Known about the structure:
By secondary structure, the chain is mainly beta. The chain has one domain: Medium-chain alcohol dehydrogenases, catalytic domain (Quinone Oxidoreductase, Chain A, domain 1), CATH 3.90.180.10. Helix content is 8%, strand content 38%. The chain has one helix and eight strands. The strands form three sheets. A three-stranded antiparallel beta sheet has the order 2-1-6, covered by helices on one side. A three-stranded antiparallel beta sheet has the order 7-3-8, with no helix packed on it. Strand 4 (56-57) and strand 5 (60-61) form a beta hairpin. The longest helix is centred in the middle third of the chain and has 9 residues, at 46-54. 22% of the residues are buried. It comes from Pan troglodytes.
Amino acid sequence: MAAAAKPNNLSLVVHGPGDLRLENYPIPEPGPNEVLLRMHSVGICGSDVHYWEYGRIGNFIVKKPMVLGHEASGTVEKVGSSVKHLKPGQQGPSTYVFIQHKYVCMLSLGQALC
């Protein structure tokens, strides 16, 4: 029997000024207070452009590879054991999160983890 294909989780990653790469990331399992979203769309904003052009914005300097795009919409794919207010299939929270192209791992309170 053939092995099941792994879902594509293509991400736009900045490695430093002018260094953008498309990379696949593993899809994380949500922790107890986290939600995994299947992404439908992701925005790139001015801070992402600064990370790409200058490798920084303000005092924050990109020191290791970082996935770009933090304005997103999606559908809840999985929820952690302590998440009671969201269910798989629901439209995911619209919030300021760090994302991976098709999936995002985030706290149920809306703070970014990944």
